[in-house]
């Protein structure tokens, strides 16, 4: 599967002019995942900072930005949920 399933889902909503609730649910789920993708795994504001945030000595530890949800997992979940949305939209049409 690839992004064509997402395109088909949006075209289905556009041409049928319905299923907005199902699409809204998928959209809010994707936005929640996007927040997880853009947010760090560890919140830097909760850590106590004494002075500079970058390591200044060899003994200081450098913490790179680590995502809460990895990019591959984000794309995999978004692509996997699109056929479910299409199935829900089909059964609501009956």
TrEMBL record:
Keywords: Membrane, Transmembrane, Transmembrane helix. GO terms for cellular component: endoplasmic reticulum; Golgi membrane. It is found in: Membrane. It comes from the Eukaryota. Pfam families: Rer1. It is a multi-pass membrane protein. The chain crosses the membrane at residues 12-35. GO terms for biological process: protein retention in ER lumen; retrograde vesicle-mediated transport, Golgi to endoplasmic reticulum. Its main location: membrane. InterPro entries: Rer1. PANTHER family: PROTEIN RER1 (PTHR10743:SF0). Belongs to the RER1 family. This is Uncharacterized protein. It comes from Quercus lobata.
């Amino acid at each position: 599967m690839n992004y064509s399933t997402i395109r088909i889902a949006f075209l289905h909503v556009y041409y049928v002019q319905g299923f907005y609730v199902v699409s809204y649910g998928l959209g809010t789920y994707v936005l929640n995942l996007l927040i997880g993708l853009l947010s760090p795994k560890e919140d830097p504001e909760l850590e106590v900072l004494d002075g500079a945030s970058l390591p200044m000595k060899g003994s200081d530890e450098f913490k790179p930005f680590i995502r809460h949800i990895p990019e591959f997992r984000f794309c995999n979940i978004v692509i996997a949920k699109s056929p479910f949305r299409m199935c829900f939209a089909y059964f609501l049409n009956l």
